[in-house]
């Protein structure tokens, strides 16, 4: 260790021999030798010009530092620029998902919806003719469903004291003013129809956005208002149907939907024939059985040979409109969506409708989006860095922000309402919401769906995909089949599907689709760094050279002077430490330090004991005081002919020449 210490000490001194051993010498040396223009003039000029050049150098140095801060802050903002490029190549045909707008066949779910349908008919009669239908509609109804989430009339003729009336009660149900109003009647013309939601004892969302509006018999209730009775009864029926279907096993739900053989009458891809067997079935809670062409799960994606309608996908569908659920589905037609292979089709949010009795042609253009990852944007490659469990991963599909947001909502639904919603995948070990096990789930779900805090939380947590493909569609429609050809077309299709000589199809259910690439040009929208490291260095160097005439070598010189300052500081600290250690060693003696003769005698005569008497005027006998022994140190090696700096001599009292 001693040898290493001496070696490092010598290195420090040798490094410091050029500029000097004081801060002043070092500063003068830097100003006299630097390539930066200003410091040289400070040394060379007279007093007045020296002051002027000092002020100018300080001013321009401040400008350079300010400009550097601006450029570094701009670089660290991680801004991106977007470039658009157009390519031309053969592309894979997109995956095509088609669904019937009615999720189930009414003939197969009628037994499940019997009580709900009767209740719905009574509600409509009450809304349309309250005086005539009120007495007879409540006797044979099963009001178990109604009692969980009823519909009410709200009379707002007096905005400060609105009156709330139950649809199936002749008397007062509740009002904000707590003033009874017996005998009051109302209709959709004079009142608003609202959904009455009652909270129970299960956990609440942290921020319910439905404020209490009434209190009757100690029960707090909330109202969800609608501008139209049509919207109110449709939302109410869908909510009650969700409660019913949530208790039915998934296999039975699939059996009650439209099969692929019923829905897909004809298929042609390019010049090759295809059938319903070329479609992959998937159950969607909103649309029932859906079917995906070219999903790419089991086989390779199909390429498109050429652009144009003759090289695309041609389909003839029969939606069977006569078997629609009357109160659940008010739209007739098909729902379709184009998406990437191995991606889940969120057809409710991103799909389009195709009308019955029409031929719909869809020309497709492709946009490929390539986003920069961190730190430029919060995008993800595969969703592995997103803290939300992807409930759609059971389908072996790729990550998407829609999957993340819906999984996040289901997670909040389970944590706040103790059950999962029927429209979203369910984690293992959890149950779907229903009125029997979770009586207040409708209130909790409505409050959570309207919660701004919940939406912001999911948006902040979920990330966009770094690579995405979007399909831009150009849609055109025409009547199909024409009046002159519908007879033979319906005859042929009826014979092929039902083996019947009679016509079993009609214009209300038939749909023709043509899906094709308009052209093979595709657009790539790519993000790139707006300010890269080359931009940063160029601007830093330009500002430094313009204001101070400096370069990279000047920066190296400045770094060198900083290192020299550090070396001088270390040398002074080492010298100070040794000086303090020497003073502590001298403090061990009671009297003056030993003379040279005493040191020589102690070195040559090991039995020698120095005089312990105190030489001061106040000296007294101390019989019990012992003087520490003087080590047998050899006599000092005088080196009076060598000249060394004071710091060097102090820092090396071992006698080493440096």
From TrEMBL:
List the residue ranges of the region (Disordered).
607-658
The record's GO molecular-function terms, alphabetically, read:
ligand-gated sodium channel activity
InterPro entries in UniProt: ENaC, ENaC_chordates, ENaC_CS
UniProt feature, compositional bias: Pro residues: 626-637
> Sorted alphabetically, which keywords does the UniProt record give?
Cell membrane, Cytoplasmic vesicle, Disulfide bond, Ion channel, Ion transport, Membrane, Sodium, Sodium channel, Sodium transport, Transmembrane, Transmembrane helix, Transport, Ubl conjugation
Q: Does the keyword Cell membrane apply?
A: yes
Its membrane topology, per UniProt?
Answer: Multi-pass membrane protein
Where does it reside? Apical cell membrane; Cytoplasmic vesicle membrane
Name the chemical reaction catalysed here.
Na(+)(in) = Na(+)(out)
Q: Cellular component GO terms, alphabetically? A: apical plasma membrane; cytoplasmic vesicle membrane; sodium channel complex
Amino acid composition bias (Acidic residues), ranges on this chain: 649-658
Question: Which parts pass through the membrane?
Answer: 51-71
Predominantly, its location class is membrane
Its job: This is one of the three pore-forming subunits of the heterotrimeric epithelial sodium channel (ENaC), a critical regulator of sodium balance and fluid homeostasis. ENaC operates in epithelial tissues, where it mediates the electrodiffusion of sodium ions from extracellular fluid through the apical membrane of cells, with water following osmotically. It plays a key role in maintaining sodium homeostasis through electrogenic sodium reabsorption in the kidneys. Additionally, ENaC is essential for airway surface liquid homeostasis, which is crucial for proper mucus clearance.
Q: Which family does it belong to?
A: Belongs to the amiloride-sensitive sodium channel (TC 1.A.6) family. SCNN1B subfamily.
Protein name (record): Epithelial sodium channel subunit beta
Q: Which organism is it from?
A: Monodon monoceros
- What does the organism's lineage look like at the top? Eukaryota, Metazoa, Chordata, Craniata, Vertebrata
């Amino acid at each position: 260790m001693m040898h290493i210490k001496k070696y490092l000490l010598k290195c420090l001194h040798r490094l410091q021999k050029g500029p000097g051993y004081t801060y002043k010498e070092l500063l003068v040396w830097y100003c006299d030798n630097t390539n930066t223009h200003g410091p040289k003039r400070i040394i060379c000029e007279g007093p007045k010009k020296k002051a002027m050049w000092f002020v100018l150098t300080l001013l321009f140095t401040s400008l350079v530092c300010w400009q550097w801060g601006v450029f570094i802050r701009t670089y660290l903002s991680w801004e991106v620029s977007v470039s658009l490029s157009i390519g031309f190549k053969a592309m894979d045909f997109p995956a095509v998902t088609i669904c019937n707008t009615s999720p189930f066949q009414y003939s197969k779910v009628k037994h499940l919806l019997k009580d709900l349908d009767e209740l719905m008919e009574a509600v409509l009669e009450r809304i349309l003719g309250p005086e005539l239908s009120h007495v007879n509609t409540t006797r044979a109804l099963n009001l178990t469903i109604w009692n969980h989430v009823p519909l009410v009339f709200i009379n707002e003729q007096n905005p400060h004291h609105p009156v709330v009336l139950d649809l199936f009660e002749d008397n007062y149900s509740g009002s904000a003013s707590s003033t009874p109003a017996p005998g009051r009647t109302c209709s959709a013309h004079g009142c608003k129809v609202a959904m009455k939601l009652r909270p129970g004892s299960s956990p609440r969302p942290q921020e319910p956005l439905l404020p209490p509006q009434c209190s009757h018999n100690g029960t707090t209730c909330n109202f969800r208002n609608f501008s139209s009775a049509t919207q109110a009864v449709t939302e109410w029926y869908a909510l009650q149907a969700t409660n019913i279907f949530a208790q039915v096993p998934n296999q039975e739900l699939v059996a009650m939907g439209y099969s692929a053989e019923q829905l897909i009458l004809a298929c042609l891809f390019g010049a090759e024939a295809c059938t319903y067997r070329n479609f992959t079935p998937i159950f969607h809670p909103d649309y029932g059985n859906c079917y995906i062409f070219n999903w790419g799960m089991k086989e390779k994606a199909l390429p498109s040979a050429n652009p144009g309608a003759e090289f695309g996908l041609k389909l003839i569908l029969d939606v069977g409109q006569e078997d629609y659920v009357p109160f659940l589905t008010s739209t007739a037609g098909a729902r379709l969506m184009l998406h990437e292979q191995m991606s889940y089709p969120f057809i409710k949010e991103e799909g389009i409708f195709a009308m019955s009795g029409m031929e719909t042609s869809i020309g497709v253009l492709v946009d490929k989006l390539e986003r920069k990852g961190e730190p430029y944007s919060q995008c993800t490659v595969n969703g592995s860095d997103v803290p939300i469990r992807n409930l759609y991963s059971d389908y072996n599909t790729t990550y998407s922000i829609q999957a993340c947001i819906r999984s996040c909502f289901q997670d909040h639904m389970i944590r706040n309402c103790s059950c999962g919603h029927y429209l979203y995948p369910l984690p293992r070990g959890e149950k779907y919401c229903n009125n029997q096990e979770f009586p207040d789930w409708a209130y909790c779900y409505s409050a959570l769906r309207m919660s701004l805090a919940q939406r912001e939380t999911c948006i902040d947590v979920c990330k966009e995909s770094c690579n995405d493909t979007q399909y831009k569609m150009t849609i055109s429609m025409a009547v199909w089949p024409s009046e002159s050809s519908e007879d033979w077309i319906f005859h042929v299709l009826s014979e092929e599907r039902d083996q019947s000589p009679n016509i079993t199809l009609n214009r209300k259910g038939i749909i023709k689709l043509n899906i094709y690439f308009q052209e093979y040009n595709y657009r790539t929208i790519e993000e790139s760094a707006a300010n890269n490291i080359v931009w940063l260095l160029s601007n830093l160097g330009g500002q430094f050279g313009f204001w101070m005439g400096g370069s990279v070598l000047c920066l190296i010189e400045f770094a060198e002077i900083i290192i020299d300052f550090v070396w001088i500081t270390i040398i002074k600290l080492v010298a100070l430490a040794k000086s303090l250690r020497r003073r502590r060693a001298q403090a061990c003696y009671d009297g003056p330090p030993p003379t040279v003769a005493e040191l020589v005698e102690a070195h040559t005569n090991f039995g020698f004991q120095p005089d312990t008497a105190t030489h001061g005027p106040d000296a007294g006998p101390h019989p019990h005081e012992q003087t520490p022994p003087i080590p047998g140190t050899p006599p000092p090696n005088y080196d009076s002919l060598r000249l060394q700096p004071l710091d060097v001599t102090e820092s090396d009292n071992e006698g080493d020449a440096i």
